């Protein structure tokens, strides 16, 4: 592991300090990140790919936000089936001084576990050993990026020891991220009667690099026959988008200082 990465992380952790919302604080910009894309399809189901489901849900969410929250600027990391590097996704949000980052993904399980279903939402954190596989899967796309080792200062997504250094990066927005993630999960449960797998802290690279409250929401298991049909249906995608929308509305109401 390069010393440069350690120095970068330590400096970043010192520079990013969460400030209490100022009087009159408003959420002005939200970045929506459809997971994967282009030559990075993500997980695959029996008839669909994660990159396509995440994009459709994200676009529906963006349309709802523009309609019901017109004063909030909505930025997408991608609007079509293109390849966007993980570092660039966070960079887009940071450059826009975004107030919230929402990454949309689908979950998956290997053969023998295809009965598993439900929704879960991730926030940046030092994941436990039992959660390494999930974090490594979400970070694996960087291997498809040109010169990824130099771009990420030697970070190796397949090496669990890489997460030791990532854990040094104190997420200044941890509490707000967790609160927002809980609102999303509660919305899934109450509105859509989905099975909740809870809020989890994991070393997901795209969230680690975001300088604002950030979540990655897994909208269902593409490896589960029942859920794959649901997350590909118009009704299912509309329900998911509306549930995330309601969570955003509640978060915005709670966080804004009058």
From TrEMBL:
GO terms for biological process: peptidoglycan catabolic process. Residues 90-249 form the MurNAc-LAA domain. SMART domains: Ami_3. Keywords: Hydrolase. It catalyses: Hydrolyzes the link between N-acetylmuramoyl residues and L-amino acid residues in certain cell-wall glycopeptides. Pfam families: Amidase_3. GO terms for molecular function: N-acetylmuramoyl-L-alanine amidase activity. InterPro entries: MurNAc-LAA_cat, N-acetylmuramoyl_amidase_3. GO terms for cellular component: outer membrane-bounded periplasmic space. Its EC number is 3.5.1.28. This is N-acetylmuramoyl-L-alanine amidase. The lineage of its organism: Bacteria, Pseudomonadati, Bacteroidota, Sphingobacteriia, Sphingobacteriales.
């Amino acid at each position: 592991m390069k010393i440069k990465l350690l120095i970068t992380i330590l400096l970043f952790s010192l520079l990013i300090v969460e400030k209490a919302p100022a009087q009159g604080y408003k959420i002005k910009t939200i970045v929506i990140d459809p997971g994967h894309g282009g030559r990075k399809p993500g997980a695959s189901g029996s008839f669909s790919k994660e990159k396509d489901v995440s994009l459709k849900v994200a676009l529906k969410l963006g349309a709802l936000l523009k309609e019901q929250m017109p004063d909030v600027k909505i930025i997408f990391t991608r609007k079509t089936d293109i390849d966007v590097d993980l570092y660039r996704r966070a960079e887009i949000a940071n450059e826009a001084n975004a107030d919230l980052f929402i990454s949309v993904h689908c979950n998956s399980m290997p053969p023998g576990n295809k009965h598993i279903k439900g929704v879960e939402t991730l926030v940046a954190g030092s994941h436990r050993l039992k959660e390494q596989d999930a974090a490594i899967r979400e970070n694996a796309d960087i291997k498809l990026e040109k010169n990824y080792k130099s771009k990420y200062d030697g970070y190796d997504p397949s090496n669990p020891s890489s997460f030791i250094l990532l854990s040094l990066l104190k997420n200044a927005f941890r509490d707000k991220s967790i609160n927002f993630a809980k609102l999303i999960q509660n919305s899934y449960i109450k509105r859509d009667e989905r099975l909740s797998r809870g809020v989890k802290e994991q070393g997901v690279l795209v969230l680690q690099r975001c300088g604002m409250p950030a979540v990655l929401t897994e909208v269902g298991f593409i490896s589960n026959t029942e859920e794959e049909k649901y997350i590909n249906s118009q009704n299912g995608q509309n329900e998911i988008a509306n549930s995330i929308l309601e969570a955003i509305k509640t978060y915005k109401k709670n966080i804004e200082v009058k």
